Amino acid sequence: GTRHFPRQRGQALYGSLTLILTVDAQGQMVQIETVQSSGIAELDRQARAIANAAAPFGEFSDDIKRQADRLAWVVRFTFSAESGLQTQWFEPTPTRP
After folding, report:
1. Of 1 and 82, which is predicted with more confidence?
2. Can you give the pTM of this predicted structure?
């Protein structure tokens, strides 16, 4: 996040947005949804790219696979001059396609 801090025309972009990241049982990102935009389209786009670049994640354990085919996390990304990138993750929601 800080190495690839969002920029546009050489200027750092600051703001907060909320995404839902959905991962399948093999750890692959299957969907990234913006639920609350930062109001800056380029910041939102770059935040989604950062989230996508974090994949793949680990494969689900057998216990989790028995409960869900996918997990969806709500994640709040905050880009600020003072503290760089901060993320706040909320409890995952198990889903079946």
Report:
1. 82
2. 0.83
Of 85, 74, 72, the residue nearest 13 (C-alpha): 85
Binned at pLDDT 50, 70 and 90, residue 1 comes out as very low
Supply φ then ψ for residue 52, to 5 degrees: -65, -35
Q: Tell me the DSSP string of 18-33.
A: EEEEEEETTS-EEEEE
User: What is the β-pairing status of strands 15-24 and 7-8?
Assistant: unpaired
Residue 95 · residue 72 · CB < 8 Å: yes
Triad 18, 34, 40: Cα angle to 5°: 80
